[in-house]
């Protein structure tokens, strides 16, 4: 009969939790979600209040350090982030080595990993020690520097991934613009002319950045923490997070929503599409969420933001199809029974109206999400008792012990 599988002989309880539906791996004070009530709060502040009154960078400070900044704390934080926007000149060659049609998420993921090679101060293997200690000012300053760099360079790397495919030169990060305005400037600035991004679009994108900044332990944040738990440098951990975000069930869903709407075409085709979803032949992208079982509170902010943007850009042609799809799904028993509602990914309609290419949409998710990843990474690095490496167990269901059979004896 052979030996019993390892897991049956071990003492203690092991729970198989496919997809981590019920597993909490740590305590956190960062983001609160009540999926049944449709509530999202950053450090206790409702997302609706922050979207109305705060900015992406101010909320970033809140997420990372735990409280809203004073005026001088904010000025320092913003200045550090904007000063770290410039990349090493080698980055130019790095981006130019990609194929002309490379997906921008592949480029962004690789670019964060590349950054890890520049900053040995962030690499515990090279420093030969655990780097970050609560109460040690020098080590906290080292940690802050990595945070400023990653947030500051996120918009620069994203803009480079956008421009390189158009054969356009890269733009040096400007001075005197807000974070989001600087991003749009680096994306679209041409030649020597003065270019001022439209303030309504800057505000709209800033709100979208803010609501995408964190969402507790989703797939990508978990990936960042799992990777970071080996004490690797934060650039490598952020690259891992980007890779996880890229998939169509997560950050790639905003791109998938538009491809789905294009494939549906006209509102008249919606009923047939809904039936195909129910037969499990198609995916209704932008619907459903692991945590939200009523509406996703961010979807209301997306709607409001869309109204503002469409006043400037004109209404997206796919909006009617999107509305017909929404209305049909919301009154269909299949979706009601499974408690499926729109998530945040219909913001793809706004990105399209603003003129971003379809495959750039996940980048517009990754850029603000680095904030949440860093907030959780910092929390883990400074937690009481130090970092515990994340090493889940499996339930082994394979063969028991077998003896090797020489090739000529096999049947
Ligand atoms: N369309 C049709 N049916 C769906 C959808 C959907 N979008 N989402 C879930 N369901 C169905 C499932 O088939 C399942 O049905 P069953 O019980 O009959 O088998 C039931 O609803 C429960 O869904 P699960 O897949 O178990 O939910 P899970 O929490 O594992 O997945 C996920 C959540 C991945 C977001 C899923 O809803 C999905 O694939 N949605 C579409 C992709 C998408 O929009 N992703 C973005 C998520 S938000 C974000 O990352 C910002």
From TrEMBL:
UniProt key word Transferase: yes
Keyword Transferase: yes
GO molecular function, one term: acyltransferase activity, acyl groups converted into alkyl on transfer
Top-level division of the source organism's lineage: Eukaryota
GO BP annotations, alphabetical order: monocarboxylic acid metabolic process; tricarboxylic acid cycle
SUPFAM superfamilies linked: Citrate synthase
Family classification: Belongs to the citrate synthase family.
UniProt protein name: Citrate synthase
